[in-house]
Amino acid sequence: MEWCGVQYLQQMTTLEIRVRSTKRGEKEAGFLAQGGAAVCSGLHQGFESFSLAAPAFDQGRRGKVQVVNEAVGILVKGKGGPEMVLVYEEDGRPVRRRTSVSGVAPTSSASSSASQSLPRSTQQAAAPSEEDSNQTTTTEDSTMKPQALLSAAAFLPAFVSAAPSADKRAAKPPAFFLAGDSTTAVQSTGGGGWGNGFLSFLKKPAFGTNYGRNGRTTVDYVSQGHWATVKDAVKSNTANFDVYVTIQFGHNDQKPEKNISLDQYQTNLGNLAKEIKALGATPILVTPLTRRSFNSAGVVTNNLSNERERTIAAATETKTTYIDLNLNSRKYVQAIGETKAHSYNLVESDNTHLNAEGSVVFGRLVADLVLQKNKGLEQWFTPNNTLSDEIWKAINSSTV
């Protein structure tokens, strides 16, 4: 049985070693997991690693646990193997929970050099007090009384090796907010884009919202308040999610009556990206979805090339990630041919907007492009290998 102190919150964001000397002159070691439900992972003398069985104390008797002070986790010997007892405060009262642990294995002998490699500030950080640990472990259950305190030399090497995987497990889920015109927007009269199809591939707790609006440009999307709505969503979610904002315009900006020059279009896109970065989120500039119209020779029209080039230029200028939806959707449409391409039309004569099936197909293309540029997000997307294979086989065989 070993002792370790943990701060139990909802989302783990940092993992910190805490070492100190006790009144008896012994070394006491623990860790602080700020913002996390994954507590005490691979951090005990005599064990290589272990993890709490799910659910990891994320629900109390009255709903979601609100821990206001430091909790203490104690490894005990249960009838069926090692178990973890977590003691914390809920509604002002001490609560004890017990669960089995998995993945337990003996650890190899440890070297004290690991503790010497830690930053001085980390080595000197205060661990939970001896009084607190005694209060926590002195209960009617005699198995909860700790034996010898941890040796920092035996404890720290296992901890250091476990920390990266704990950080990976604790990564915040993404939230995607889609800003754009009707080729991003939900399917409706006069509009319909890839947005909802893209969002359909997200795995909970990741989520997204389609803020695409029919007929909008980089100018009136802002002036009419839609951009402010997107920014409010970003501000409300950055604490608990890694927020991404896709930005795709161009179909309406290019219309002569809008009086928006290519220079202004590029500047506007860059400004939108910079505003999202300033809020602590990640912008993704998206070159505009191709139109599915063909000339007499059966070649898909390329009438958004200027907007594509300026979107890429804005991304380069502001050091922003971009995905080339225009080029890849044009290649795909060319490869599948006019008849198949028009089967994705919202209405028969509309070669711009997508029906529900088209939203899924081009939404999958966007998802694949996003994942190519943002490694590590794969766990938050439901794969559709059949559809992805069909899309990329077509793109790679395209003649444009």
Give the strand line-up of the largest sheet: 1-7-8-9-4
Arithmetic mean pLDDT: 71
Structural class: alpha/beta
Number of strands: 14
Succession of helices and strands? EEEEEEEEEHHHHEHEHHEHEHEHHH
CATH architecture classification name of the largest domain: 3-Layer(aba) Sandwich
Radius of gyration: 27 Å
Give the end-to-end Cα distance, rounded to a whole number of Å.
66 Å
Total of domains: 2
> Which CATH class of the largest domain is shown?
Alpha Beta
Secondary structure tally, helices: 12
**Considering DSSP H and I runs of 4 or more, what fraction of the residues is helical?**
25-40%
Proportion of β residues? 15-25%
The CATH superfamily name of the largest domain is SGNH hydrolase
Low-confidence spans: 1-22, 26-77, 101-170
CATH fold-type name of the largest domain: Rossmann fold
**Biggest sheet architecture:** 5 strands, antiparallel
